Fold these 3 entries.
Entry 1:
Amino acid sequence: MFEWKDEYSVNVVSIDAQHRVLFQIAGELHAAMTAGQGKAGCSKVLNRLVQYTATHFSHEERLMRERRYPDFDKHKALHDALTKQVLKFEADFNSGQVMLTVQLLQFLQGWLTNHIRNTDTKYVPYLSGKIAAPAEAPKFEPSMR
C-alpha cells in the first residue's frame, strides 16, 4: 500500500529521501494495524509519522523560502491544513474516539502520492535553480532634501 515508486521523485535528494521515509513509516503504520498490534503499537507508529511529517514540512518550507518560491504561502497552507487534520486524528485516536481504519490509510496514501506528484513538483524548478526566483522589489529610499 505504501510502496515508493520512482515516479514520486522530485529530484531533490533531501526531499526524496524524506518522502521515502514518510512512505516507510506509513507502511509501518499499515503493518501495525493489519498485524493487530493494538492501540499502543499503532499509536507509537502514528506519533512517529506525525513527528516526521512536521520535520519534513519544516525542511521543505525552509528550502522554498531560501529560493523565494512564489507559491510558498499557498504550499505552506496545504501543509498547515494537513498537519491540523493529522494532529486532530492522532488526538482522537489516542483518546479512543476514532479507530485506525483502512479508509484513513487510503486517505494518507492518496495524500502522499497526490501532494508529491501535483504540488511538490511545482517547486522543483525553483529548488533546482532551473527557474530563478523573482527578484525582490527595490527598497524605496526617500531623499533627504
Entry 2:
Amino acid sequence: MTARHRYWFPAKRYGWGWGPPTCWQGWLVVLLYALLVLAGCIAWPPTRDPVHFLLWMAFVTALLIAVCWRTGEPPRWRWGG
C-alpha cells in the first residue's frame, strides 16, 4: 500500500497472520465481527443448533479473513525482529 493508505491490520511479529488493528476502520471490522458472532449465538445457540452455528461461524470468519487479506499487510511467516 502507498503511504496514503495504511494497513488496517499489520502483520504479526512472530508466525503467520495479522495482529490487532492499527486504525479505526480495522477496529470497526473487529467490532462488527464480534456483533455477528453474538448474533449467531442468539439465532442458533451452539448447544441447541450446532450445525447452523458452525456454518454461521465459518461464514463470518471467512469474511473477516477476506477483509484482513485485502486491507492488511501481505501475510508470510515471520520470525520476529
Entry 3:
Amino acid sequence: MKVSFVDQLAVQGSTVLHRAEAWSKLLAAMILIAGIILCHHWELLLPLFLLAGILLWRTGLSPVQQLYFYLYPLIFSFLYGHYLVGLEGAQLLVIILRAVTAVMTLLLLMSTTPYIEVFSALNRVLPSVLTDVMFLTYRALFLLAGRLKELLVAIKLRGGASSGNLLRNLVSTGTYLGMAFLTAVDLNERSYWMLLLRGYRGGIEKTEKKTSGITNGVLLLVASIFFLVTVIW
C-alpha cells in the first residue's frame, strides 16, 4: 500500500478527528507519545492501542492495511526487547506496545490531517525557513519514490541486476544510489522553482475551516489524562 493513500484519507475523510484543528491534533499527539514513552504498564497501553486501531479503522484503514505500518516497529521492538535487553512476559509486551502505539498515534495524525495543515500549524512556532525546508522535503519524497521505482525497473530490464553476479549487482547499486541522489537534488530544485512561479513566497498560511472548540478540547483532555495517569501510576 502506498503512503500517498494516507494523504488521500486525510483530505477526503469526514470523521470527528478530521474536523479538529491541526494544532490540537499535533499537541495531543505530542502529549500521547510522551505518555507512551513514560508508560510502564501494558494495562494502559493496550486500551490506547485498541482505541487508536478503531479510530484508524473509522478513517478508512482496515486492520490488514494497518498491519502494513506495524510490521517494522513490531519486529524490531521484539528483537530489541527479547534478544538485546532480555525482557519477557509483561515487560516485553510493554516494549512492543510502546513502539506500535507510537506509530499508530502518528499514523492517526497523518490520516486525519492534510500535510499542508500540519505545516501551517508548525509555521506558527517554527521559523519560516525551517517549515519551508520541511514542506519541500515532504513533497519531494513522493516524487522521488516514484522516480526511484522507475529507475529500478529500468536497471532490471537492461540486465543490470543478476542473482549470480555479485560484482555487477554492486556496480548497479552504486549507479542506482548515485542516480537517486542526483534525482533528489533535481526534484527539490525544480519543485521549489515551480512553487515560486505559482506565487509561493515563503511561509504557509493557515487554512481556514470550521471546527468545533469542543472537539479540540476533548482531544487534548483525553491526551492529558493519559499522560497524567502514566506519570502518577
